């Protein structure tokens, strides 16, 4: 079965995120290693790294830990200052992941800002390669970190809503072996991939197989969608309460091709620490696995 978990807050320390995911029985974890809305970030201290690594070791699912890049990063930007900042910020994030022992880093492909898809993809690829090379000079452990391009809803000039665009980056990169894909169900649905039917589900993964390949899939973001099919608008909803619906998630969770992959919730947290909402969504996902196996929960 897949490893199910959620994005967790690091309030109180990075190791607290591990305690939170463990408290709700999660087996996969995503975090922001630093504030996702600021360019400047302090390096990870030795004390932070040791506390995080010890917590992960005690939890036991270190291969299923991912970090999400800063929302400010736009490697496809035509503006030199933003591109420079983005390269530096990604290199620093890679260095933090290396020090913390986080194996997966999720990256938004960025936006071409009106200059065209082809030019945007070329800048994205070149700046991504430069960041990977810069990161190696900061921390040699970054070479163990796989960067996962996340598919997008396709709003505005955002890149990555088509699988062909993701494939082009991985094909053209000097560091293709370091790259994979994080597939977000909400983003795919908003981009026009209808996961609700057997035919639509099969067509979606056939399209992946025919572009960058199923073997590049390393992580799923499991999110229902507030908006409609093909809306190009990214709005996450609780599992089974949005326009994707339960059957799509039942198919995904029970797809034998993905049984060993981490699947992480990014659903709304609500008030408080959000753990109760995550607990409910995880229970919904686990029930879909049990029902498919013929063991319906009471």
Automatic annotation (TrEMBL):
SUPFAM superfamilies: Xylose isomerase-like. The keyword DNA repair applies. Signal peptide: none annotated. Zn(2+) 3 binds at residues 187, 234, 236. Its cofactor is Zn(2+). One of its GO terms (molecular function) is zinc ion binding. It comes from the Bacteria. Keywords: DNA damage, DNA repair, Endonuclease, Hydrolase, Metal-binding, Nuclease, Zinc. Binds 3 Zn(2+) ions. Residues 19-273 form the Xylose isomerase-like TIM barrel domain. Zn(2+) 1 binds at residues 68, 108, 150. It catalyses: Endonucleolytic cleavage to 5'-phosphooligonucleotide end-products. GO terms for biological process: base-excision repair. The keyword 4Fe-4S does not apply. Its EC number is 3.1.21.2. Zn(2+) 2 binds at residues 150, 184, 221, 266. InterPro entries: AP_endonuc_2, AP_endonuc_F2_Zn_BS, Xyl_isomerase-like_sf, Xyl_isomerase-like_TIM-brl. It is an enzyme of class 3 (hydrolase). SMART domains: AP2Ec (SM00518). Belongs to the AP endonuclease 2 family. Endonuclease IV plays a role in DNA repair. It cleaves phosphodiester bonds at apurinic or apyrimidinic (AP) sites, generating a 3'-hydroxyl group and a 5'-terminal sugar phosphate. HAMAP family: Nfo (MF_00152). This is Probable endonuclease 4. The lineage of its organism: Bacteria, Pseudomonadati, Thermodesulfobacteriota, Desulfovibrionia, Desulfovibrionales.
């Amino acid at each position: 079965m897949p490893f199910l978990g959620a994005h967790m807050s690091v309030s109180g320390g990075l190791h607290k995120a591990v305690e939170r995911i463990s408290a709700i029985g999660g087996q996969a974890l995503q975090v922001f290693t630093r504030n996702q809305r600021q360019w400047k970030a302090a390096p990870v201290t030795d004390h932070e790294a040791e506390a995080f690594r010890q917590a992960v070791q005690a939890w036991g699912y270190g291969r299923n830990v991912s970090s999400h890049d800063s929302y400010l990063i736009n490697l496809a930007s035509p503006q030199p200052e933003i591109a420079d900042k983005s390269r530096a910020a990604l290199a620093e994030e890679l260095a933090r992941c290396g020090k913390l022992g986080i194996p997966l880093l999720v990256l938004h492909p960025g936006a071409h800002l009106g200059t065209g898809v082809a030019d945007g993809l070329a800048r994205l690829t070149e700046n991504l390669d430069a960041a990977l090379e810069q990161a190696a000079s900061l921390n040699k452990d970054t070479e163990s970190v796989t960067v996962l391009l996340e598919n997008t809803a396709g709003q505005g000039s955002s890149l990555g809503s088509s699988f062909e665009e993701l494939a082009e980056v991985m094909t053209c990169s000097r560091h293709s072996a370091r790259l994979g894909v994080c597939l977000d169900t909400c983003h795919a649905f908003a981009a026009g991939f209808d996961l609700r039917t057997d035919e639509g589900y099969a067509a979606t993964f056939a399209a992946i197989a025919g572009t960058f390949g199923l073997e590049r899939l390393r992580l799923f973001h499991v999110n229902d969608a507030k908006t409609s099919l093909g809306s190009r608008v990214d709005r996450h909803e609780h599992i089974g309460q949005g326009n994707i619906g339960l059957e799509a998630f039942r198919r995904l969770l029970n797809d034998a091709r993905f049984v060993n992959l981490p699947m992480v919730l990014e659903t709304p947290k609500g008030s408080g620490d959000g753990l109760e909402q995550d607990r409910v969504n995880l229970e919904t996902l686990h029930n879909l696995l049990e029902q498919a196996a013929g063991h319906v929960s009471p």
